Amino acid sequence: MALVIDKWCKSSSPVNFEEAGCAVCGQLTLCTDLSALKNMKNYLHVLEAQSVTRAFRSSPDESISEIEGPVLDKSAGDNICNNCRSSLRAGNVPKLALCRGLWLGVIPDELKGLKFYEKMLIARVRHTKCFKGSTNYSKLVSNVIAFENPIPKIYDTLPPPKEEIEEVLAVMFSGSTKPTQDDYAHALLLVRRNVVAKALQILILNHFDYNDVVFSSANLESYAEDAPIVSVEYFQKGSNRNAEGISVHDDLNDDGTEEGDCVFTVHGIVGPSIKNK
Ligand SMILES: [Zn+2]
């Protein structure tokens, strides 16, 4: 028994699972497979690359410039993984190095914490249509099903007009009573206009693919903050549980969450279409 406990303690010690990022490839790696980047400073010149990085701009008056020096993830600190280190020692650019066009930079706060529908409003390329189903009984549960668009749509003006979002998103609510304003908020069906505006402005200033995007405040104003992003269909139903999926010994109530934001799963339906013979 003591042997079992001893083995468990050894295998669950932090050194066996603690991870940190590699500054060259940005990948999370076991700390035991990382070493100090400062010992490699004479090999880093191969990581210098043109048109990969971009210095952060907070206003259109600032000129567009690149970050000088080797392309590194500064947030990873002084770490380099064994794979990158051995490639650099041989004078080669590591296969997954950020300087191979994989550099993202620091994600600005304005782009963190966006909700699903807010992301829909700032996405330049739309390659799916979504159907969202929410059910509200004693608890709220939601699912999103995404279908691949035959041809992706690329927007030059963002956010897209409300009519276009209504074409690619449908929301259905079922429950014993009609959904309330609280239900809409919990089901994350409301969008925050100022959050969307700030995210788009940051992207237009700093993201290469958003250089020629036009921000439309008129389109943004068409989305109300206190009403769902698209019209919601409601139909009455007695329970949110599937009779086929319930055990005979299961006497629990409805599935889902009772309070707070209702997280949802996105089911993607993509791939080659099945042709009829
Ligand atoms: Zn690496």
Structural description of this entry:
There is one protein chain. The chain is an alpha/beta fold. It has two domains: 13-100, no CATH class; 109-269, no CATH class. 21% of the residues lie in helices and 22% in strands. It has seven helices and eleven strands. The protein has helices at residues 2-11, 82-89, 116-122, 162-168, 181-186, 193-206, 217-221, and strands spanning 19-21, 28-30, 34-36, 79-81, 125-136, 140-154, 157-158, 169-175, 214-215, 232-236, 264-269. The protein has a five-stranded mixed sheet. Strands 1-2 form a two-stranded antiparallel sheet. The protein is flat. The N and C termini lie far apart (63 Å). Mean pLDDT is 83; it is low at 273-277. The chain binds zinc ion. Zinc ion binds next to helix 2.
